[in-house]
Amino acid sequence: MSGLSRTVVATGSIRDMNSALWLLAVQGAVGAFDSFYYHEWMARLPARGKAAAAELKLHAGRDVLYAVLFGTLPWFSWRGRWAAVLIVIVGAEIVLTLWDFVAEIGVRRVLGDVYAGERITHAVMGITYGAMLAFLMPLVIRWWSLPTVLALDPPAIPDVLRWSVSAMAIGVFLSGLRDLYAALELPHGGWPWDTE
């Protein structure tokens, strides 16, 4: 590969990762709004105990997968067979999301259904996630051809983006723990809402 070709590939890789991480940050911001406003404030899912346990457990599982994405992509490259692990994580998140769409039908029946604005928020998140994957997958394909290692290899992105996405990893992980705690009906799991 000529020097110019390598430069074009490297520039494309930087641009792809930058775009993927900005979209992931948007996904995190919209997801935080969805969790705080619709799941917590409007539906008060943690206070619904067993009635919402199925949805809360799915949220907890997805949150762990998101925490891995938010926590690693600004810092690491998933090379060789690690690229396959990343693809499995992305695929598992998609499966849990689809399963969550079905679980919501039963959980939200007592509320009359998922809120209209929440459906729009979910659609925006789906579009954003798909766009993020469109930028990320070419990088994953490149990583696949490299020797297997989860390499500390911070991409050339703005520091504000790197640290914002990293902070979102902590936030989404804590949200998942909160949902799992509430789903297991542990003491005060519905706080600050009254339990039914």
- Average pLDDT over all residues: 92
- How much of the sequence lies in strands comes to under 5%
**Proportion in helices:** over 70%
Order of helices and strands: HHEHHEH
Cα-to-Cα separation, first versus last residue? 65 Å
Strand order in the sheet with the most strands: 1-2
Radius of gyration: 19 Å
Structural class: mainly alpha
Low-confidence runs (pLDDT<50, min 5 residues)?
Answer: 1-11
The main pleated sheet reads as: 2 strands, antiparallel
By DSSP (H or I, 4+ residues per run), the number of helices equals 5
The number of distinct β-strands equals: 2
Shape assignment:
elongated
What is the topological layout?
Elements (H helix, E strand, L loop, with lengths): L2 H40 L10 H20 L3 E4 L1 H27 L8 H29 L4 E4 L6 H25 L13
Antiparallel strand pairs: 1-2
Describe it.
This protein has helices spanning 3-42, 53-72, 81-107, 116-144, 159-183; strands spanning 76-79, 149-152. The chain has 196 residues and is mostly helical. It is elongated, with a radius of gyration of 19 Å. The model is unreliable at 1-11 (pLDDT under 50).
Task: Name the features.
196 residues, mainly alpha, two-stranded antiparallel sheet, 5 helices, 72% helix
